[in-house]
Structures are given as structure tokens and as C-alpha cells.
Specification:
alpha/beta, Nucleotidyltransferase, domain 5, 10 strands, 28% helix
Length: 199
């Protein structure tokens, strides 16, 4: 089984089997309470099943700095504790797979709120060897007017779909995503430069 975790928008966790079937999923709709939600979500989906987990998938964004770090840190810690491999997944890939399986025709663009009157956008034009929509390029962040003129898919990340992406790609022998978080811009808070002390 694969444990899947995502906090690129809301926070969610799921268990999927090795064929990608979702066994249990739970999501918090609080867009700011990632740290408070992740523990109870993991407790719920792992209840009695932790020993059967063979990998941990997690979303690498795009998403906000703090929220994204919470889910990634929790997932990587779970993988370390359970002694299983990590399977990073671009969070928009999960939205794209759910949309495609729901009947959306390629090409399309996944669009998500990035705050500051901006959006994250990722274009999908075809399927990979696992049957998952594959990106035409890396995600971007910018004004709504800069989004490519394609049918837009807007949805929260389903943790079950994220786990399904990981399972399908692993079964097809495809390499997982890079584990690098896709913040796409600097955090809102920065550390002040240290004051120089003169004698």
C-alpha cells in the first residue's frame, strides 16, 4: 500500500493499493491549518495499516511555502520511520489525473489560486506510459491573464488521486518526481540581516 500526503492547498492523506485503488482518504478543508490537521489525518488513514505501507507519496506543489513544507516534512518523516521509499508527485498531476478520469479531454491547464491575485498554472497535453496526463512544461505562477488559452481545470488536490499517480507510475517503471518543493516564489516572511556590533 502507498500512503499519500498533500498540503499544497488544503491538507489530505490517503492509502491506495499497489494498483492505485483508493482504500481510505481524508481531507481537511482548512487552507491554513496544515500543521494542526496533518497528525489526525495520518492517524485516521493509517489506523491498523502502517505495517502494510510499502511507500510514501507526497505532493511537492506548487503551493505556499509554509503549507507545502508541513505535508512534505510529515510524509518524509513517515517514510523514514516506516523504512519505505519516498515517491514525490507534482500536486497538479493528481488534479490532472482526476480530471482526465472524470472525462476532461486533453489538452487542458490546471489552475490553482496562488494568492496575491495570481494563479499557479500547469499545462497538460498528452498521457505518459502510465496513463497519467504529462506536463507540457513546468508549473508557473503569474497573473490570470497569462494562463494559456486552454480549457481550465480548477480543483483541490485529492490525496487519493495523488497516491494513484504514484502507484500507476511505479507500476509502469517510471521514475518519481524530483523531491524539490515547487514554491515558485519566495516566502512572505524573510529573516532580517544581523546587526553589526562595533566595539
Amino acid at each position: 500500500m502507498i500512503l499519500a500526503v498533500d498540503s499544497s492547498g488544503t491538507t489530505g492523506a490517503a492509502l491506495v493499493d499497489d494498483r492505485g485503488a483508493v482504500l481510505v482518504a481524508r481531507r481537511s478543508d482548512d487552507p491554513r491549518g496544515h500543521a494542526e490537521a496533518i497528525g489526525p489525518l495520518l492517524d485516521h488513514v493509517l489506523a491498523g495499516s502502517a505495517a502494510a505501507v510499502t511507500a510514501v507519496a507526497y505532493g511537492v506543489g506548487p503551493g505556499p511555502f509554509t503549507g507545502l513544507r508541513v505535508g512534505m516534512a510529515a510524509a518524509r518523516t513517515a517514510a523514514l520511520v516506516l523504512g519505505v521509499p519516498e515517491l514525490p508527485v507534482l500536486s497538479h498531476d493528481a488534479i490532472a489525473l482526476a480530471a482526465h478520469e472524470g472525462g476532461a479531454e486533453l489538452p487542458f491547464v490546471v489552475v490553482a489560486d496562488a494568492k496575491r491575485r495570481e494563479v499557479y498554472a500547469t499545462v497538460y497535453r498528452e498521457l505518459d506510459a502510465a496513463g497519467v496526463p504529462t506536463r507540457a512544461g513546468e508549473p508557473t505562477v503569474g497573473a490570470v491573464g497569462a494562463v494559456p488559452d486552454l480549457p481550465a481545470v480548477r480543483a483541490a488536490v485529492d490525496p487519493g488521486a495523488l497516491g494513484r499517480v504514484a502507484a500507476l507510475r511505479r507500476a509502469a517503471g517510471l521514475a518519481p518526481e524530483s523531491p524539490t518543493a515547487r514554491y515558485l516564489r519566495s516566502p512572505d516572511v524573510t529573516l532580517a540581516a544581523p546587526k553589526r556590533v562595533t566595539g
